[in-house]
Input
Amino acid sequence: MKRATIPALVVVVGVLVLADLLLVNDSLSELAGVAIDAAILVAAGAALAAVASLAVRRARDLWRRRGDPIGAALVLAGMAAMLIAGLRPGAAGATDPAVGWLVAALLIPIGATLFGLLFVTTLAASRRSLASRSREATVLVGAALVVLLMLLPIGGVVGERLSDAAGWALAVPIGAVFRGMLIGVAILAAVFAARTLLGVGATDE
Amino acid sequence: MSERSALAARLAPLLLVGALAAALLAGLDDRLTLESADDGAARAVTAAFDAMPDDALVLVGFDPDVGTYAEIRPTVRAVLADLLNRGATLGLVSLTPDGRALAIAELARMDRSEANPRQLIDLGFLPGAEAALVAVARGINGGSQDPIRADLPSPPDLAVVIGGIDLGARSWVEQVQPRIDGLPIVAIAPTVLLPELEPYRASGQLAALIGTPRDGAAYRAQAELGRLERMVDPAAGPSPAAIIVGLLVAIGVLGQAFGSRLAAVMRAARPRDVA
Output
C-alpha cells in the first residue's frame, strides 16, 4: 500500500506542476497552487519537527549523561535563549532587538569562525590524504596547488599570465566540468522522474 | 607521527594566527588593494541597475549563510545602498532560516541609517526552499493570493539574489526565471559558489554575478552611493593581507606535502629502473 501511495502522489503532483508550467489554465494553476502551498506547509512542519526532535534528543542525552553532555547543554541553552528573546511577553518576535543581538553578535561570528576553521582542517585533511598514498588524492592536491599558484597576486607580465590562466581554468576545464555535472544531474532527475511517473521500479528491469 | 611532527601540527594554527597578526600589524592592508584589474563583473552589475526604470521595484532574495556571509557582507551592503540611492524599492524575502536571520539584521541596520523606510518591504520568511521559490514566482505572476504579491506594489523589475551554500542564484534561475518572462537576475555569492554559477553568468541567465572578493571590491570602488555612503563601512572588506598570507600558507603546506609524496614515488621507482 505504502509503495503504491507515494509514487501515485508523486505522479499526480509532478504532472500537475509540469502541466501548470507548460499550459495557461486558471483551474490548473489553482490546483498546482494548492499542491505547492501544501509542499510549503509540509516543509515548515518538517523544519519545526526537526528542531523539536533535536531538542528532545539533546535533552535525553543530557538526562542520561551520554554522548556529549556539554554540547547538549549548549544546544539547549542556545535554543532557550533564542526562544525567550523572541517569545517573551512584549517581544517583537524575530525582529526583536534581543534576537537581532543574538544573531549579529553571536550567531554570525560563531558561524564565520567555524567556516574559517575549514582552512586549517582542509589543509590537514589534504596532508593526511596524501600520506595515504592515494592516486586520486595526489591528483586532487596537485590541481589545488596549481590553482592556488594561478591565484597569486603578482604584478607584471608573470602576474598577468597567471591571472589569464586562472580565468581560462575557470571558464574552460572547471566550467566544463560544472556544466557537465549540472546537465548530468538534470538528465538523472528527468530519468528518475520519468521512471516514477511511469511506475518503473528496480524489480521491473 | 613523530613527536616533532605532532608538535609542529599543534603549533601550526598558532603560527598561522601569528603570521596573520604580523601581516595586519605591518600595515600590508594599506599598501594592497583587492580591486581586480578586470572590472567587467562590477560594470555588468552597474549596467543591470542602470537598465532599471525610475522608482523600480527590486525583489531581493536574501539567503546567505552565516559561514560565508562575512565574505560578501560589504558588497551586499554596497548593493543595497546603491539600489536605495537610485530610488528603488527593495522587497526582501528569505527562504532559509539563516537568510532570514541575516535579513532581519540588515533591515535593522538600514532602519538605523539614512535609508528611507518607505523603500523597504520586509516580505519575511517562506519555508519550502524550491517549492517556496515556485510560490514566489506564481505570486509575482498574480496566479494566486500569495502574500508576496499582496505585499508588492507591482511586479519586480529586477531580482537580486544574495546567495549562500544552502540556496542561491542557481535555484532562482531554475525555478523563477522560467516562470517570469524577462526578469533579470543579479547574483552576489561567496567564492565557493563561483564554479557553479559561472556557467549561468556565461549563458546570460544571470545578468551579472559578483562571485569573488576582488569583483566585490571593484564594484564597491565604482558604486555611487550618495548620502547612503554611511551604510557601507569602507574598512569592512576582506583583508588583502590575510588573503595573501592564507594563499602563501596553503601553497607552502600543500607544496611541501605534494613534494614529499613525489619524492617518495621517485625513490620507490628508482631501484626498479636499476633492476
